[in-house]
Every structure is written in C-alpha cells, then in structure tokens.
Amino acid sequence: MASGARIVYVVDADDGVRQALARLLHAAGLEARTCESVAALQRDTVGEAAACVVLDLSGSARLGETARAGLSGRAGTMPIIAMSALDDADTRRLARELGAQAFFRKPVDGAALVDAIAWATRTESVQPAR
Description:
With 130 residues, this protein is α/β, with parallel strands linked by helices. The protein has a single domain (7-121), classed as Response regulator (Rossmann fold, 3-Layer(aba) Sandwich). It has helices at residues 15-27, 38-44, 63-70, 89-97, 110-121, and strands at 7-11, 31-35, 50-56, 80-84, 102-105. A five-stranded parallel beta sheet has the order 2-1-3-4-5, with helices on both faces. The longest helix has 13 residues, at 15-27.
C-alpha cells in the first residue's frame, strides 16, 4: 500500500477475528490495522490518515460507555462500521448512538463489509474481496 494511504482500523477483542478481517481488507487493497480495544485505537490513530473503524460491539455490557468515551476526539471523526455477534435492539441502538454507517451481524459477509467501507469512506479504489 502506498505511503500516506488511508487506514481501516479493525477493533475486536478476538485476535482470530482481527487477523481474518485484516487479511480480507488487504486482499481488497486496503491497509488494515488491528486493535484489541477502543483504548488501543485511540493510541494508534494519533497522526494517521484513517479512513474508518470496523468496530465489534460484542462483549461486556459496559462496552457502550467505553466506546462512546473512547471514540471522542480524533477517532470520533472516522466513519464507523459496527458488527456484533448479537443482533438485538440494544446492540442496534448502540450502533446508532455511535453513528455507525452500517451494522453487520457476525459472521460478517466479506464482500458486503468491503462495500460498506467503500460507501462509508466514498473510496472508489476499493477492490472487491475475492
């Protein structure tokens, strides 16, 4: 990926999910960086030309508070694509409250995720995942 490229941050507590999504995004021609938490995302986005955040909303009941607090400032200006193993009213409400551009239930369809990233970031150069 060229220097100065915009970055898609994948935030998920599960290392296997982070690695799989990073491979998918690389195959689609995107630069992916992974973080295990919103706090790590805040540390890693300093000075980066980030395109968006793919954020897992699954996990502890306190994630909503953590995400809202952690996605302020620099990280809060990036479009969010939310995903969760849960597809209930509370999780969808949290996605809306965070301003998510899209919400996916896990397991995420790779082509749909790449399309959502392209739409959320208005990126014309994203290649479909194969």
